[in-house]
UniProtKB/TrEMBL annotation:
Keywords: 2Fe-2S, Iron, Iron-sulfur, Metal-binding, Oxidoreductase. PANTHER family: OXIDOREDUCTASE WITH IRON-SULFUR SUBUNIT, OXIDOREDUCTASE, IRON-SULPHUR BINDING SUBUNIT-RELATED-RELATED. Pathway: Alkaloid degradation; nicotine degradation. One of its GO terms (molecular function) is oxidoreductase activity, acting on the aldehyde or oxo group of donors. SUPFAM superfamilies: 2Fe-2S ferredoxin-like, CO dehydrogenase ISP C-domain like. Residues 3-79 form the 2Fe-2S ferredoxin-type domain. This is Xanthine dehydrogenase YagT iron-sulfur-binding subunit. Coiled coil: none annotated. The lineage of its organism: Bacteria, Bacillati, Actinomycetota, Actinomycetes, Propionibacteriales.
């Protein structure tokens, strides 16, 4: 069964017809040609497909496209302002927070979403003090970014990139 949906992807309205079983990741990549989110595990375990969905980070390989009709989707490509990189993107470049780069778009989107969660005082599993603002130390960053895997092992540089933007 097909359904017509509209998504706002990186600020642009995009209408398409999808099979109701189509994942948001497949709709973005295969139907709309948006290749920033990557298909890594296709099981919601690696985070390579992470985007900001209505401002919150989400893995798109587990989301059905029809469930997000009318949603605002921001990919790593949509974070930049023209030729000017988003501060998180720039920090990843400066701290060499990638090697092969496959996971990088998901890492960047996750980091941006994670900082919004911290700003809203959403605790994580390792948050020590739930009263007051959250101290974003390396342990807290690692815990909050744990849903995004880097098969190359660039974690030290990823944490440094996130830490710099968090300051």
């Amino acid at each position: 069964m097909d359904a017509q949906i509209e998504l706002r992807v990186d600020g642009q309205p995009r209408a398409l017809t999808v099979d109701t079983r189509t994942t948001l990741l497949d709709a973005l990549r295969d139907r709309l040609g948006v290749t920033s989110p990557k298909k890594g595990c296709d099981h919601g375990q690696c985070g390579a497909c992470t985007v900001l969905l209505d401002g919150r980070r989400a893995v798109t390989c587990l989301a059905l496209a029809v469930a997000y009709d009318g949603a605002e989707i921001t990919t790593a490509d949509g974070l930049a302002d023209g030729a000017e990189l988003h501060p998180m993107q720039q920090s990843f470049v400066e701290h060499d927070g990638f090697q092969c780069g496959y996971c990088t778009p998901g890492q960047v989107c996750s980091a941006v979403g994670m900082l919004e969660e911290v700003h809203a005082n959403h605790p994580s599993h390792v948050t020590k003090d739930l009263i007051g603002s959250i101290k974003l130390d390396d342990e807290e960053i690692r815990e909050r970014m744990s849903g995004n895997l880097c098969r190359c092992g660039a974690y030290v540089n990823i944490v440094a990139a996130v830490r710099e933007v968090a300051r």
